[in-house]
Design brief:
Length: 377
């Protein structure tokens, strides 16, 4: 019996030694190794995608009274461009003939808001007008544009030519006889009611695509954030979703189910810092979106090509998975103690390749609200 006691004591002592030796290199649920991780969901926002409407002339061809040939284009939700110019074009119904609009009167309405000493919002509206313009670069979530012109301002559009399509492209330094490949906004008379048609955003094509979202850049396609049907593949639900996690200095976003961006656009991400009242204080650019670990391939060119066939699909045109991984070691504004202090939001944006990279634009698609355990700890 004494021998048995010695054996048991010896075994117990050995086990304690082993356990003690493991504590420095292994973790348990009671004593985890490394910083705690805090996670939250990315949710779809009420997106501020480019939008507007076009008022067409009453007649598809020129009338005897030029005043009745006016074209009014109203636009909102545009990015400011650092290169290139928003340019308006007229086209016939089949979009085989284009004519650049000119001599536009552009009225910009900017709405700003501040909080007064009583804590109430104060709205300020500023209206500015430019005459005789051929294009513009300005944009912003708080700006509304009214472009007024006439079909007679374009020498390329004859009096007998039809005016059935109004298109807005982004042009470089040299403007050709037809719009560039970035044909992002358009309206068709055939889809109008009482000569007024809603502006569509995406990649324009001469023919109206079939219902669904299986098109290609050459075929054209209106961009939407989410859909429950996809042409060519039966019923399919495409709704972007994902999750953000902060663990110490590292922030990771893993998300999925996005439609590929229109030609000339790409997805990126930002972290937003808030002040003590919850107002936006600063933004930090988290970079272009990539495919998930381990490849982390840039998806910047997914508007026209397929850079990552493992997660980017051509039919339907969907990005199945995206990711972002950053450390505050490379982000001085977030490299606080503790890391990410006062950062309250992470957003995924759809932005123009012609806008200044790293300057947050108007078109947020998904957003995550970081918990107090991150922003206030």
């Amino acid at each position: 019996m004494a021998s048995m006691r010695l054996i048991l004591a010896s075994t117990l002592s050995a086990a304690l030694v082993v356990t003690s030796a493991c504590e420095d290199t292994r973790s348990t649920t009671l004593e985890p190794v490394g910083a705690l991780g805090f996670g939250t969901l990315l949710v779809r926002t009420a997106t501020n995608l480019p939008r507007g409407f076009v008022n067409f002339p009453a007649s598809v061809v020129a009338s005897a009274t030029p005043a009745t040939d006016s074209v009014i284009v109203t636009l909102a939700g545009l990015d400011s461009l650092s290169i290139g110019t928003y340019t308006v074009w007229f086209a016939n119904d089949s979009a085989t003939k284009f004519a650049r609009a000119g001599a536009m009167d552009i009225r910009t309405t900017r709405v700003d808001s501040t909080i007064n000493a009583a804590g109430d919002p104060v709205i300020t509206t500023v209206v500015s007008t430019v005459t005789g313009a051929t294009g513009f670069r300005s944009g912003g979530s708080n700006k509304l544009f009214r472009l007024a012109t006439s079909r007679i301002t374009s020498a390329a559009l004859l009096a007998t030519d039809s005016l059935n399509v109004v298109l807005v492209s982004i042009e470089g330094a040299t403007v050709g006889a037809a719009p560039s490949e970035v044909r992002a906004l358009w309206a068709r008379r055939s889809q109008a009611t009482a000569n007024a048609a809603g502006v569509r955003f995406g990649t324009f094509a001469p023919r109206i695509p079939a219902a669904g979202f299986a098109g290609s850049p050459t075929a054209g396609q209106e961009f939407v954030v989410a859909s429950s049907t996809t042409a060519g593949v039966g019923s399919m639900t495409i709704v972007p979703r994902g999750r953000v996690e902060v663990r110490g200095k590292i922030l990771i976003a893993n998300d999925s189910n996005y439609f590929r961006p229109p030609v000339g656009y790409y997805y990126n991400a930002y972290a937003i810092k808030l002040d003590t009242t919850g107002r936006v204080n600063d933004t930090v650019y988290l970079g272009r979106r990539t495919s998930p670990y381990p490849s982390r391939t840039s998806l910047y060119e997914s508007d026209k090509t397929n850079p990552a066939p493992d997660v980017v699909f051509d039919t339907p045109r969907v990005i199945f998975a995206m990711a972002t991984r950053v450390s505050t070691d490379s982000l001085p504004k977030a490299n606080s103690t503790p890391a990410w202090l006062n950062f309250g939001l992470v957003v995924v944006n759809l932005e123009s390749k012609f806008a200044a990279e790293g300057k947050m634009g108007a078109n947020t698609v998904l957003q995550a609200t970081l918990p107090k355990s991150v922003r206030g700890r």
